[in-house]
Amino acid sequence: MMKRWAFNPLLAGVCLFAAADLRAADTVTFAETIAPILYQNCVTCHRPGEAAPFSLISYEDVKKRGVLIAAVTKSRYMPPWHAAHGYGEFVGERRLTDEQIAAIGDWVQQGMPEGDRSKMPKAPEFPEGWKLGKPDLIIEMPVSYDVPASGPDQFRNFVVPTNLTEDKWVRAVDYRPSARKVVHHAIFSWIKGGAAANRDGADGKPGFPGAAPVGLQGFAESGGVGGWVPGGSAAFLPEGMAMRLPKGSDLVLQIHFHPSGKPETERSQVAFYFSDRPPQRNLIGIDIPSLFSFGKALNIAPNAKDYAVEESVALPVDVRAYAIGAHAHYLGKEMKATATLPDGTIKPLLWIQDWDFNWQDNYTYKEPFDLPKGTRIDVKIGWDNSTENPRNPKNPPRRVKWGLQSQDEMGGVGLVVTAKTKEDEEALMKFLGERAGIAGREGFQNGNLARMQQLQRIAQAPSQRITLVDRQGASIATIGEPALLSQAAFSPDGARVAAILTNRESGQSDIWIYEAAGGAGKPLTADEEADSTPVWSPDGRRIAYVRGDDDANGIYVRAADGSGRGELVYKHETGGAIFLTDWSKADLLCFWTSDSQSLYVVPLNGDRKPIALFEGRGGRISPDGRYIAYSWNGGAGPMVTYVRPLNLSAPATTPVRVHKETALGGVVWRADGKGFTFTSLTGLQISGMWQVEITESPELALSEPRLLFKPVGLASPAQLSSIATGDLERFVTLPPVR
């Protein structure tokens, strides 16, 4: 029999009161629940003057962003802590519990009530002075560094002498940035005194650029002495532990700047606390793979989602582990390290499941632990070069290889340990040195060493300034600001100059256009690929240039005013470098390549297939198209400059030698086609700018060359195009400036 329920006002009232009591018990307020969570986990960064974009101290501040806070805590994007819970127990873990995250979500759902203000916890107080007391040494940047209001992140290395007269042993380091809002993190290292003298300030600004660890920047001697991230707290190393800071060394402050929306000025201070005696054991870093995967030939294809490198290392001695860290760039995705002890016991060391280049922590274990000899350390580093990676800086994705810049990649895990005995320490250092040597040889074979050396040359090279000189070599004007410049070329009317400008931060080379009358330049190209050898069209409306694409070098043409996109004219499929030197009035592009001895022309009209002429370098075609001047050495020996008739259907015409001495490139034809300039060489240096006249009586003949001046600031002569105006009265040079 079905039982019928009748409405009972008494029971309904009881139910309503019970529901009300339940809601009251479950009500989440800012005062009693949310403020304690935020004060404990968030306000070290989210307070006035710190790097976080807004404060989270007052109820009003938090309520305005309640929905955002609930979202970023639920996804565990905030607080920033990337070590997986339970995969290593670390000091200062910035991780909310599931209950705390649920409470924030409930608070937002309930309308974000403030609650009883009398029950609010006291807001945290942060000491104004040095947290660890009076330091033994304070090092300050000697000059301030200006951070722009906007633009890409900057990685800058500031070099400051320590002026130490004896070795010191560092037990703790503290850091005080003056513009906390723009300092994302800082890393402290030492190098041999004076080792960075040729880099520091080379681009006219304090310090020098570079995102790579100092140990990978080519310094013969270096070592780490700590770092700082927002929210971090200075602490002393365990008793008996210390880091060496050698006498006479220079401190390198590597600072990652993130523009805040307004100009800022940074002048950091670093405080050191010394031990009164050397450590009982030295802290040693075991990096896996060695040298951040330098020997691994990383080659991450576009859209590769699960590219990975794995490596295992068997410990040659007993060690005690104190801390661990990881490093990769924007494509890094996963870092996992596990120890398998000789008895088969597996000990988790670190697992970062969602790497974030912007939050690079070092993780100190709550309790140091022993790893016996024979323990196998297994490390896996994963990268994601797909569009699904929200941190991928390129869309569409590009091929990425190992490199020092942040748009390149590298990866590794570093375990910080001590050996039990002095003998074990020596054995461990020898073992790690052998591993680094193997990685170095592999890096030489896979091309990583060559790329690193090229970036080091860029970082160390002096800046140049576009300087116009007359026929006697006297300066008549300077253009633009000092920069790392090369391959300057006049437009046909002499009103503009195109040049290659290389960014020291990224190593990226682009074409810039400058007005000869003065003023700042403007970029014509701004692509990631390396651009080189700009050549003007005869009417000055377009520029041809070479772009180093992923698969091969290509010749592109683009409007000189920057409109439109570059048009691919020719791709050199064999892989050699292309050096473009001329654009004739008949629309022939003249070039040579590193994998052939021939000079070529590509007709812009027709099928655009290259035509091989003859062996040579630096070809330049006369205004009437009848002759071509070039240089060649027969495949070996000193270079010689020649001129010969140009005949595309029968290129093997008779050459006439221009100069008795060594000469290479620098050819610019006078507008009437009756004379041209060229450059002579002494060794590998340009020693003179010369002019020669052409006569035809009836055969091609040349006058005796006349020395105009000895130029300063010309390089790569076989790659130069129009370094003089059509009347041969003005020349463009790039002398170095400091």
What does this structure look like?
It contains seven helices and 46 strands. By secondary structure, the chain is mostly beta strands. The protein folds into four domains: 33-119, no CATH class; 137-275, Copper type II, ascorbate-dependent monooxygenase, N-terminal domain (Jelly Rolls); 287-455, Jelly Rolls; 461-733, TolB, C-terminal domain (Neuraminidase, 6 Propeller). The strands form twelve sheets. The chain has a five-stranded antiparallel beta sheet, with no helix packed on it. Strands 40, 41, 42, 43 and 44 form a five-stranded antiparallel beta sheet that branches. Strand 29 (542-548) and strand 30 form a beta hairpin. The relative contact order is 0.08. Residues 1-25 have low confidence and may be disordered.
Topology:
Layout: H1 9-26, H2 30-41, H3 59-64, H4 66-74, H5 98-109, E1 137-140, E2 145-147, E3 154-161, E4 168-176, E5 183-191, E6 208-209, E7 222-228, E8 243-245, E9 250-257, E10 264-266, E11 269-274, E12 284-288, E13 299-300, E14 307-314, E15 319-328, E16 332-340, E17 346-352, E18 362-371, E19 376-383, E20 400-401, E21 411-419, H6 422-446, H7 448-460, E22 463-469, E23 475-483, E24 485-490, E25 496-502, E26 509-515, E27 522-523, E28 530-536, E29 542-548, E30 553-559, E31 567-572, E32 578-583, E33 588-593, E34 598-603, E35 611-615, E36 617-621, E37 627-632, E38 640-645, E39 656-657, E40 668-669, E41 675-682, E42 685-696, E43 700-702, E44 706-709, E45 731-733, E46 736-737
Antiparallel strand pairs: 1-11, 2-10, 3-6, 3-9, 4-8, 4-11, 5-7, 5-9, 12-21, 13-20, 14-19, 15-18, 15-21, 16-17, 16-19, 22-23, 22-45, 22-46, 24-25, 25-26, 26-27, 28-29, 29-30, 30-31, 32-33, 33-34, 34-35, 36-37, 37-38, 38-39, 40-41, 41-42, 42-43, 42-44
Helix pairs in contact: 2-5, 4-5
